[in-house]
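ARCHIVE CARD
Drawer: 12
Card no.: 0347
Subject: one protein chain, sequence and derived structure
Cross-reference: see card 0346
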Amino acid sequence: MSLKPRKIPLRICIGCREKRPKKELIRIVRTPQGEVVMDLTGKKAGRGAYICLQSDCFKKALKKKLLEKNLQHSVSESMINEIMAQLEETERSQA
């Protein structure tokens, strides 16, 4: 009896619409209390949207208001800045 390879969960980036492994994306969550937070663990309760680790995808999602549409909630300017800072930090560490 052989072990089956573990299935890697795929999610779609709301910016570029590409399917990627969940670990390669950042999850943004609207919690049941109605606040929008970044979920780096991927386990928080609430409605989630996934974004690539590239700031270009996030900018595209912001321009088309895809984040608000997916979360069904408005996103504060401070949250947008926090997500952008996280993406830029990730891009710097990968370069």
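Annotation on reverse: The CA atoms of residues 47 and 79 lie 16 Å apart. The helical segments are 55-63, 66-71, 77-94.
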